[in-house]
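ok here's CRAL-TRIO domain-containing protein:
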Amino acid sequence: MHILNSMSLFDIIAALIKPFIKPKVFQRIQLHHGNMDYEKFYENEIPKSHLPKEYGGTLGTLDELQAETTKKLMDLRDYFILEEKQRELEFEDYIRKHPKDVKCHD
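and the structure:
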């Protein structure tokens, strides 16, 4: 995991929590300060296939990616509506079964 533009505060926090985290996990966390060479970082750490064209990648432009994501979400619109209704029904059912657990603030 890479944390970009980390402040020196993160270094202090990392030093404090390091004794409580397994070394293998802690080695996976890499802090990068604001003065780093981002082009070198992108070359070494992130495949070009995962970056948009604006960042030197082959994934497509940011506008294209936004349009694709919006289309995918709109294609799932019916699912989101049904899922929300399901949550409402489950909540209403819970209220009927456990009226004392639900507190209303008037």
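+1. Residues 26 and 73 are 35 Å apart (CA to CA).
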